[in-house]
Amino acid sequence: MACLFSPSAIFHYMNKLKHPATILQNIWNQGGRSFTAQSTPHYDLLVIGGGSGGFAAAKEASELGAKVAVLDYVTPSPRGTKWGLGGTCVNVGCIPKKLMHQAALLGEAIHDARSYGFQLPQPEHIRHNWHSLREAVQNHIKSVNWVTRVELREKRVEYINALGSFKDPYTIQAKIKEKSFNLTAKNFLIAVGGRPRYPRIPGALEYGITSDDIFSLESSPGKTLVVGAGYIGLECAGFLRGLGCNVSVMVRSIVLRGFDQQMAKLISESMEERGIRFLRKCLPRRIEKLPGNSLLITWTNDNGQECCEQFDTVLFAIGRRALTRELGLDKAGWEMCSTRSPS
């Protein structure tokens, strides 16, 4: 059977040893299949996923003498959003989020500037242009996409923009539009990351968005309901409020589950002081589209009482699922099992 690795596993091997190139060759040799001259594999290592983990591992393996390719493809979100090379962080995560957050901080600074001696003409009348911010953010992302592509080329790593799944333990079937082709390798690195989850309620897929979509919206989200009070939901709620949107956060149980609750309490109180409303102990039940593109959201509280309200946008931030389901790991001889946090 071919060897399957995660990015952290392959770096664990490299970092512990004095001669990583030699050990990397040993890893290649663990594949278990004897390739003949007629069946020479295309690659020593085929990386499935072009995000931070796969990108770093591919470059390192190439520097140590392996023939490497990165297979990367973004399946559009239910809303149709796609993006380029670089994974979640570059395209719909860390980078655009920090840019949006910086824009929100600049807005606050403008309103505070008078207190520090800056004479601005009525800062309370200053309005934010969402389209201009979106364009600036997307242009920056595209520049990072390009730099990432160039770095792979400089490291002699082949980039293949195709959707891959296992055909057998040594073969990946890659698909581009209507065409498909096979790629073979001695070893595979799975670095496919994850995508946001949607609740199983009527209207969620049809009318809701996630962090995959928020950074590329053509117009301001307006009055927004963020469903989920983890760090992604709170980050989005924070910068949207800073950009002038009316924001509510729906909390199923507690804010920032898994984090220090004393700090979580301070964060939620600070957000409330900034005008963000928290709907606590509530669960969404359905979303309906109204005339004029408004959305009617119905939810129940902890007393079982049903409530509803109109919003312009509903953003789901209820967790993420790993994209391993689409890989066909059973054809590679691997079994999937449930964990405490099922995907």
From TrEMBL:
PANTHER family: GLUTATHIONE REDUCTASE. Pfam families: Pyr_redox_2. This is FAD/NAD(P)-binding domain-containing protein. Transmembrane segments: none annotated. It comes from the Eukaryota. Belongs to the class-I pyridine nucleotide-disulfide oxidoreductase family. It comes from Tenebrio molitor. GO terms for molecular function: flavin adenine dinucleotide binding; glutathione-disulfide reductase (NADPH) activity. The lineage of its organism: Eukaryota, Metazoa, Ecdysozoa, Arthropoda, Hexapoda. GO terms for cellular component: cytosol; mitochondrion. Its cofactor is FAD. The keyword 4Fe-4S does not apply. One of its GO terms (biological process) is glutathione metabolic process. Residues 43-336 form the FAD/NAD(P)-binding domain. Keywords: Disulfide bond, FAD, Flavoprotein, Oxidoreductase, Redox-active center. InterPro entries: FAD/NAD-bd_sf, FAD/NAD-binding_dom, GSHR/TRXR-like, Pyr_OxRdtase_I_AS. The keyword Ribonucleoprotein does not apply.
